Amino acid sequence: MRSTPPGRAFRLPAVSANVDAFLTAAELASRQAGHVARYLQGRVENLGKRAHGTPESEALTAVDLASQDVFLEQMRARLPDFAVDAEEDTPLAAAAPAEAPGRPVIVLDPIDGTLSYLEGSDDWAVMSGLLEDGRFSAVYLDFPALDRTIWAARGAGCWLREGRAEPRSIRLAPGAAALPRRVLCGAWFPAPGSRALEDLGLEVVRSRCSAVDATTPVLGRGCGAVARYRIDRRHAIGLFASVEAGGTVLIGEQAWTGEDPAAFEDDARPTVLAADAEDAEAWRKALATAL
Fold first, then answer.
1. Residues 17-170, CATH architecture
2. Less Cβ crowding at N or C end of the chain, within 10 Å?
3. Reported confidence tier of residue 46, pLDDT bands at 50, 70, 90
4. Are 246 and 217 in contact (CB under 8 A)?
5. Residue 226 has what pLDDT?
């Protein structure tokens, strides 16, 4: 079971009242949802759902549904006026206020990486973010099987806690010299794109969990990640943490700094995350030619 003691773990410089309230609520909600999911890992089956036709997008368990409402029960008690954009259709998600101009939105994926979860992997996370006025202002990601948590807020940086250790600020060094030359990509990323990255001297690793992909440099697992298409709101949660740590995200040629992906036009160009800005541009150019 988790070893992290109760109580407020996150540290950030001065943030807004909404961000402070969100992070405080998300810490407890994530821990509770993560406990449920961790205890039941290996005891549930894949219920399946209609999505985009891939095993990753169609995976669903009863734990996804239960963990989501465990999380949202805390949010409803503490932030009753916030709208909710949740991954699954559950009663508490449906009961939340609708999105409206000026209303903060909680973006939630109760188990990002459900297929990995079903297969007994540690690569899954409870992840949530706060959208305000069309931009992410804070995120909280809990990796129960890894006993790690990540949180970040706009302009206040990114923090990591491992087990009982004191939280530490994550700031990616220029050139990302300390990170493995490893890039994570989705299970269905096109082979020509993988070869283009390998030609740059990178090790390309297939992944089934966008939260893990999007926090690759923060967790020290590699120097970046790529996705075939434009990100969605849930994928953006992890990317926002990496941006606040000093990473670079490019959607096509455009630098992404936390804008709501739901407001973007459809874009078939890859999304690139790199710890180093020069790497991001080099990978973008290689993928533009390959794909």
1. 2-Layer Sandwich (3.30)
2. N
3. low
4. no
5. 94
